Amino acid sequence: MRWLLLVCLIAWQRQGCHGAQTINMQLLQHWDNNWEGQFSVPLTSDVLGWELRIHFSTPVSGIQQWDGTWLQTGGTSGQDYVLLNLVDKGYHKAGTTMTIRMMGKFTGGTAPTATAEYIDLTGDSQTVPPLAIMTGVQATKYNYEEVLVKSLLFYEAQRSGKLPANNRVPWRNDSALNDKGSNNEDLTGGYYDAGDHVKFNFPMAYTTTMLAWGYLEWKDAYTQAGQHQQILDAIKWPLDYFIKCHVAPHELYVQVGDGGPDHGFWGRPEDMTMARPAFKITESRPGSDVAGETAAAMAAGSLVFKHINSTYSATLLTHARQLYDFATKYKGKYSDSVNQAAAYYRSGAYEDELGWAGVWLFQATGDRRYLTEAEAIRPTGAGWGDSWDDKTTYTDILLYKFTHKNEYKTDIEATFTSWMPGGSLPYTPGGMAYRLQWGALRYAVNMATAALFAADLNLHEHDYPSLLGSVQTLQNGPIIDQARVQACPHPVAGMNSETQAPIPTLCTGPWSVGQDDSYKDDRNDYVKNEVACDYNAAWQSGIAGLLHLALHNELPTDCK
User: Fold this and answer.
1) Tens digits of per-residue pLDDT, 47-100?
2) Angle ∠(201,206,211) on CA atoms, nearest 5
3) Residue limits of the Glycoside hydrolase family domain (predicted)?
4) CA distances from 338 to 74, 87, 96, 101 (A)
5) One of 217, 521, 525, 558 is an active-site residue; which one?
6) Which residue is catalytic, options 46, 145, 411, 530?
7) 359 forms bridges with which residues in the sheet?
8) Which residue range is the domain that position 98 belongs to?
9) Please, which residues have CB within 8 angstroms of residue 200's CB and are 6 or more apart in sequence?
10) Catalytic residue check, 46
11) Catalytic annotation on 534?
């Protein structure tokens, strides 16, 4: 179980309320000892979360309402309650009136009046009910539901293309609607990579595979947090884009936008005017790594949607098969074929992606050819640290799941031995395994989530009962992250400075700290403050894994 503790890395602490006002309840009707009333809250700013602290003039009970989680406070008098918004009931536009209706029973001969303190929790960690309120399960130190939701909101903030009607990020609008291929193919959609607005498909495909894997393993966590549809949307958004990018069996667009001109522009994606060229791999300019990773993402996606949308699942699987064949027949590193990617996401090798793709295709099809080829090509030995560019340990875990061969177990054990205290990695004073300066927490989180997947296979889940490295609690999370989609001026957000972010909770880091645990909340320090889709991917799934364990009363002590 020691491996599980790697994922206990970050907990956002409550930052304080953004606004409060007193609202009186309008009594709509009463009969016998029943009453119905409503609170109407005029909104002067966009709201992402709210709370009502209500005091009734007389005891009430049996309350029915449809907007939040209800908690009685102030002892047993029956007069004091707190209503905390449900996840999907927390988002409202400035200039509207939020109406909250409820009904119940009252004691005595006079229908109740009520006064509530309305609190705007935008940016506050309490916008999601804690596990104990929702389920009765023993409360945990960390609000995993809140982290799960906010991490998904980050992906919604990173969307490119035409946004859907259920967009939950009020300052985002449609963007990059003219993204096209060299033959005028529609390449809209997908995720902006990081603080920039380039669509780098290699890390985006890795992100998609990891989100799908976490969903397939720990679906109940998303259901519990009220985010089942949202995680499906987060997975489908890039998959729809990858389908557009795969324009022929052996042709795949792998990047839209050029890092040089893009990084010279500090502004909203909605305001971009620079050229956004598209780059693809072909038989003469191959990219086995990105084609393999995209095949893995589509195969994993086909499993996600198999019983939800069988037609869509079949489409994904067709693309996955074609891309795998392309990747294995025309071998080469995509960053050797696409110079514009080399400066940002240079590939180290492609064998790990081919093994990763093969094992996912085996899961999706049952065809043992894919499993045999995955076993033949996968890198051997201990993994360096899995990420967008290295799937060694992830692949070993899945190969062990399907074969139970000792060679995979041996390599998995060697990997985690190197990550534990006394292994080959240095540790920060605060106890975090430190692999690399850039995205230091990213690597620790990635391996933590790999440990969760391994523990699900009964690999050392009880042999290591105490510390496995990385437990890092940030008492004050970052306010100024390096992400233009969040930080730049916007008439809805009302921000006019590069030094402010409209919604601090969508920051997803810091993802790097110094080896001495140092951190500075400075947007100009992009090493420590830039966000990225791949940074959040294993983190998202790891939090789902921890919430799953909490729901089954299996959470390690240090994660409670």
Assistant:
1) 877 889 999 999 999 999 988 878 777 667 889 998 888 766 777 878 899 999
2) 120
3) 144-539
4) 64, 42, 48, 57
5) 521
6) 530
7) none
8) 19-123
9) 193, 254, 255, 341, 344, 345
10) no
11) no
